[in-house]
Amino acid sequence: MLEIGVNHYLILSGLLFSIGFMGVLRRKNLLMLFFATEVMLNAVNIAFAAIGNYYGDLSGQMFAFFVIAVAASEVAVGLGLLILLYKKYGSLDLDVISSMKG
Amino acid sequence: MYESIAFYVFAISTTILFLITVMSKNVLYAMTALAAGMVMISGFFFLLGADFLGVVQLVVYVGAVMALYAFGMMFFDATKDIKEKHQNPALVFLLGGLMALVFVVMFSAPIIGDNIKAFYPVIEGVGNAQAVGMVLFTKYLVPFEVAGLLLLVAMIAGIILAGKKMDYSLTESEAADEEMKIEPNSIEIQKGDA
Amino acid sequence: MDMNMESLVYIALFAPFVGSMFAGLLFGNAPRTHLTGIVASILIFVAFLASATLAYHVATVGPVHVKMMDWITIGDLSIPFGFLVDQISVTMMVVVTLVSTIVHIYATGYMDHDKSYNRFFSYLSAFVFAMMILVMSDNFAGLFIGWEGVGVCSWLLVGFWYHKKDRPFEENPSISPSWAANEAFIMNRVADLGMLVGIFLIYWNIGSLQYDVVFEAMPNLADGILVSIAIALFIGAMGKSAQFPLHTWLTDAMEGPTPVSALIHAATMVTAGVFLVIRSNPLYSLDAVSGVSMFIAILGTFVAFYAASMALIARDIKRIVALSTLSQLGYMFAAAGLGAYWIALFHLAAHAFFKALLFLGAGNVMHAMDDELDIFKMGGLKTAMKASYWYMGIASFALAGLPFMAGFYSKDAIIETAFNEGTFIIWGMLVITAGMTAFYSFRQVFFSFHGEKRYEPLGFHPHDMYKYVLIAMAPLAILAVSFGWLMGYYKEFIYGLNESVQYEMSDHTHHLAIYLAALVVVIAIGAIFLAWKKYGGEGDKAWKRDEAFEQSFIYKLLENQYYVPKFYDEFIVKPYTITSAKFWEIDKAMVDGSVDKIGRACLKIGDTTRGMQNGNLSSYLNWMGLGALILVLVAAFSTITTESIVECLRAVAGKGE
């Protein structure tokens, strides 16, 4: 129990991912949804680093790097879009900005 | 031993901080908790011997991304609590819980197949940053360049998307309204909010 | 074999095909034009010339065997597209192309006013092409292709006037061209199954379908297999050659245009069955299958008698001729069954000439009488149509087997064969049938051309055919008279093939031959005289309807064709219709039902899940989350194997310690 193995990291990663997942499910505010996705991305990064460490392979870290890069791009573009949306609707609530009528 | 203590401390604090991020009604709280959680995650990276990744996490995530969020937030009204209608919160918790359960069960089962060999093993006798650099600029050179390009594209896109008509006040100038093609009723909503 | 002969083989085979494609592809949708008829006729004539040259070559040099290409090669099965021109097939080729040429020329006049003129020639030439494949193929597979091609073309041609409605006949319940076409086709399918089984048996037991290989290997096969093959092949022959009990289609096929009837009866269809038996003579002359051969002879004799008896009272001019074909086919099978294959083939050829002439003459009569077929309504036509009268007379003389006509030599040889074999019952039946043949053929001649002009009150104005058509028929008339004179040469010609096709009368029969022939001739002349007495008179002696006789049992029996069609209708067609209706219900409930249910289920699922598409991104996100969860679950469960569970338990147990 005291010895920390890869399983501990993976379980932690899974838990954090689930927290992010829950956030994605319950959040209606787009900004908060972004936060939730960041949580999920970070959870995955932990898993990558842990597995890379476990196998003594640097690929895990490499993937984590790229995830971070992609996350940064996503934030840059996403925030721009959010600002445009806010300008248009004055709100970031998904219920308010839904324009399709099903 | 210290490693274990560190792991549990980090794990508990990350979980709590992220829960705050996901649950909080206040944007500022959520963001602060997220930034703090990311700092904690960089701690895991240090524990796992990925020093360079930990630093990147701190610099890029906590430094750049969170700063970006903070700046982005200036466009929005961050002082008020966010009101969200939750139709069936129980279902959300059920699904999230189920997901967590599945992961825990999956990962707590012993890992099968120790015979997987490392493609790019950790290089002995060099520091982590050095080793990462060697792999990143040899085997992962093309993805690295592509990632650089991606960041460039994202930067330009961010500037163009957010920078449009920055010099107009959204609420004061009628001309801006017309140019932005804001429909009258959406302004109503905006005014009502304010 | 030189290239010259090989190309002649292809010309003989493909000229009709080119004619068919010319009429069908180039002028299929064009308004009727004589060009199609003329080109098709010329091409068939070219095929005839090629066949005749080949016949000369076969007689002087020997058979021609060509392999055009590999056709089917799968595993051990190898069926090349090969053609064999030997004494048997070249006889058929010459007969088929000659009769077809004349029928084609005849049809240019006969079908003159039909708006589907081009279509007719396209089918007619295709019919000849199919028959050429049938007779020329050097293997059973090619034969079967031609066999089926003939079936299809006969279906197309008998049902040529498919738009005609069912109409009631005095003799027939109610038939239409399309009905008759279907009957012919379906009845032939029944027999073709037998044929196919025979071919499969040959392939399984010998591993080849080439004639030469098959017939060489046959003596080594077990008796049971040989008998099965012989029976199965003969069932196929029974269908095509309309032998009892698969004979009803032949008379109903009279619904087609008359040139088609001439072609079916003389050249391209019914002779195929006889050809098959003659072609398979090495099989049928084996001792092991002597029982089957005897059965063929007996069945042939029976059909000869049976058909002739129905012809005695038939009133439909084409039906009389059709029944006479049936009867003559019986003669051919009798000869083939008794082992006199070359005599059967000779009779086939002679019959083709006079039967074609008879049909074309009947077509002239029909043409003159505005498609009236009932001989009771004719009479005294000889003044109006002299040429047709002469043609019909010559053909009937040949059919009746009067001395020095074609039918005399060939039919007499068959009757002699029956005597020679010591099968006196067959001989007796055949002699009686010969008398009946003479009677009914002249009954028909006297009815239509002599006696009172019964058509006059009915308002007909008969006129003879076009001159060129009548001239074109002349070769048939010449052959109907003179073909028999060539019997000696023909015997010499065909003896070159092999031993099993040879047949000689014993000395004893030879001595009696003249008396036997005289007996048959006397009976035939007597029958003709009887017919003249009864139907040929004019004025006071004119024929009158005998109502009492028409009510008698025997008349009814013959009129209804021994109630065989009725039997088929009651015991096969009706139960089949009932079961089909039942199966249709089942089909509707099960097959259609299941398809409908699938459709309805899709509709229902779509209807229920439509609610998901509510336009709200948040709810979309929730659905996506659910999907992700499901995927994770699938991933989790797919990693669970028995090994992993064991491993897991071991790990837990290990920790417990």
From TrEMBL, chain A:
What Gene3D superfamilies does this protein map onto? 1.10.287.3510
Q: Which reaction does it catalyse?
A: a quinone + NADH + 5 H(+)(in) = a quinol + NAD(+) + 4 H(+)(out)
EC code: 7.1.1.-
| Keywords assigned by UniProt, alphabetized | Cell membrane, Membrane, NAD, Oxidoreductase, Quinone, Translocase, Transmembrane, Transmembrane helix, Transport, Ubiquinone
Q: Which family does it belong to?
A: Belongs to the complex I subunit 4L family.
- Main role? NDH-1 shuttles electrons from NADH, via FMN and iron-sulfur (Fe-S) centers, to quinones in the respiratory chain. The immediate electron acceptor for the enzyme in this species is believed to be ubiquinone. Couples the redox reaction to proton translocation (for every two electrons transferred, four hydrogen ions are translocated across the cytoplasmic membrane), and thus conserves the redox energy in a proton gradient.
Q: What is this protein called?
A: NADH-quinone oxidoreductase subunit K
TrEMBL record, chain B:
Cell compartments where the protein resides: Cell membrane
Q: Which GO terms describe its cellular component?
A: plasma membrane
**What are the entry keywords?**
Cell membrane, Membrane, NAD, Oxidoreductase, Quinone, Transmembrane, Transmembrane helix, Ubiquinone
- Leader peptide range in chain numbering: none
Q: Which domain of life is it from?
A: Bacteria
Q: Which of the seven top EC classes does this enzyme belong to?
A: translocase
**What protein name applies here?**
NADH-quinone oxidoreductase subunit J
Task: Provide the species name.
Answer: uncultured Sulfurovum sp
From TrEMBL, chain C:
> Which residues belong to any copy of the NADH:quinone oxidoreductase/Mrp antiporter transmembrane domain?
137-437
**Record bears the keyword Phosphoprotein:** no
Domain of life of the organism encoding this protein: Bacteria
CC per GO annotation: endomembrane system; membrane
Q: Name one GO biological process term.
A: electron transport coupled proton transport
Q: Where in the cell is it found?
A: Endomembrane system; Membrane
Recorded GO molecular functions are: NADH dehydrogenase (ubiquinone) activity; NADH dehydrogenase activity
Alphabetically list the UniProt keywords: Membrane, Oxidoreductase, Transmembrane, Transmembrane helix, Ubiquinone
List each copy of the NADH-Ubiquinone oxidoreductase (complex I) chain 5 N-terminal domain by range.
Answer: 71-121
EC number(s): the record gives 1.6.5.3
Q: What class of enzyme is it?
A: oxidoreductase
> So where does this one cross the membrane?
7-28, 35-59, 79-108, 120-137, 143-163, 184-206, 218-239, 260-278, 284-308, 320-343, 349-368, 389-409, 424-447, 468-490, 510-532, 620-640
Which InterPro entries does the UniProt entry name for this protein? NADHpl_OxRdtase_5_subgr (IPR018393), ND/Mrp_TM (IPR001750), NU5C-like (IPR003945), Proton_antipo_N (IPR001516)
The way it spans or sits in the membrane comes to:
Multi-pass membrane protein
| NCBIfam families noted in UniProt | NDH_I_L, PRK06590.1
Name recorded for this polypeptide: NADH-ubiquinone oxidoreductase chain L (EC)
What does the organism's lineage look like at the top? Bacteria, Pseudomonadati, Campylobacterota, Epsilonproteobacteria, Campylobacterales
